[in-house]
Amino acid sequence: MLMRTDPFRELDRLAQQLAGPGTWSRPSAMAMDAYREGDAYVVVFDLPGVSAEAIDIDVERNMLTVRAERRPVAKSDDVQMELSERPLGVFSRQIVLADTLDTDRIKADYDAGVLTLRIPIAERAKPRKIAVGGGSDRREISG
Known about the structure:
The protein is mostly beta strands.
């Protein structure tokens, strides 16, 4: 069996062990990507091993909060753990959303450990043309 050593991976693992698992009062961060796609803002979170029921999404004013919890898998008494690198506990991320986003129409999809939020751009924030009125309403002031 070929084994490679990555010193940075070992440092990350050590830091995670020292910090301990995330708790509701001190959650760990979760990886995410955010980008604009057409008329929507898309935010994608990696949550492998988390069930959909363990994900909580809240929006208050313009603050989006995503929380998830990964619990240990129940093991029988005869299981001896050889290696445990997958983080357990609570994960959370907060994002301040711009006023130009329509937080009433957020859509959330969860597939294969990836949570995708689509937040539409508000109609009032989209570019629009302004019509210019004609000169037929002109009045002359005489004095």
